[in-house]
Amino acid sequence: MSDIRFGTDGWRGRIADDYTFTNVRRCAQGYARYILERAAETAHSNPAGKEKTVVIGHDKRFQSEDFAAAAAEVLAAHGIKVWLTNGATPTPVIAYAVLDKRAMGAINITASHNPPQDNGFKVRGSTGGAIDPDGLKRIESLIPPASDVKSLSYDRAVSQGLIEKFDPAPPYLANLARLVDVQPIREAGLKIVVDAMWGNGAGWLTRILGGGKTEIIEIHNTRNPIFPEMKRPEPIPPNIDVGLATTQQLGASCCCITDGDADRCGFGDEHGKFVDQLRVFALLALYLLEVRGERGPIVKTLSTTSMLEQLGQLYGVPVHETGVGFKYVAPKMTETNALIGGEESGGYAFRGHVPERDGILANLYLLDFMVRTGRTPSQLVGLLFSKVGPHYYDRIDTMCTPAQRDQVRATLSAAQPDRIGGLRVTGKNMTDGFKFILEDGGFMLVRLSGTEPIVRVYTETTHEELVQAILHDGVRLAGLGDAADDDE
Predict the structure, then answer these.
(1) Greater pLDDT, 46 or 365
(2) Among 123, 290, 401, 468, which residue has the fewest nearby CB atoms (within 10 Å)?
(3) Is the pLDDT of residue 422 over 70?
């Protein structure tokens, strides 16, 4: 068994501690072995199966491009052709390149929204989406000790045609053009603040929407691996406070935000107020169902909004609930040909694209919603609430040790509360974490993060005044005292 574990979205570690070139190469060899196994299975059932090719990309964190090259050298040593992106690339663009290159999958060197000290190793399958839990376990089992890793020097791999750099942007942008007509947004005369959070989303909305009457003002759009003015490139307060303040100061129409690898979407309204990620998910579903008249299943994780079930009933579409992480969402989207899939973290994927979160496309859809309806973001939230009623959300993150994690599990497994935050508990769901259903149709969820040493407590309720009481009851119920948000 490997000492490296793939969590909710791949493996992440602290740079120069466990995240080293040696361990990245080990992960790459585990993935190479997995690809060769899949190729052998394909050859058995379909002799004309896919060529053994993989896309590799990276973010703007410290030495990410060097870690990506190291992974490419290992795949090349196993006879796998690597398409290596020509620079830091958004996760959804890497995912789309898998389809465009007819590749068997992808490696993405990124820690997404994690603190600056971290980096990560994401893997993707032939759909461009996340690999299911069984596949991740198989990759883990194939990770060798360092002494067994094979690697081919970068220059030799290039000369042999086993590593080739390419520009992944054109096919991705062409597909976006099929999904949304951006010309009306370009000519709408909006003033849009774009906060790229020092990440891979820098320049993309400007490239897509520039050249018309709409004005794009980008901030945090250069490479800076220490991520100044934020704790981490996660598109929630307080990390986005500067972007929201800039929106208010400039009198902008909205604030479009992408996280470190641009797979997550954050959004601020015309007053510089954050539109939380549960409301954004419901707004995106409403846009597709109402404005575009599309129909199809909705896939959601158990940690996100119950407004989706209400929209599903209103528009006659099924809603499927999964565990947390796109390793559950992506396969379910593929299985059901879902219209939209998403999770509480601000990651949303769409039919006709790839079963992968896309913060760029999500922001474009929100802008299109504004332009097509002539409404401001706050008015769109009002439209949503006119259909499903007001809903309120918040979350507390608490750092914890491995011993505390075990204690939290034991404590919550035995917990049978009658009331949380003053609301009667009507059910309990232990599919992924500990979710307590409340009498108003809302919930309180305690979940141990799959990517960080954090216990997260979430709630959604129709009672705004009870949000904090529910959260702090959840923290106490988990045996963590009355801890405040402490995710540093």
Answers:
(1) 365
(2) 401
(3) yes
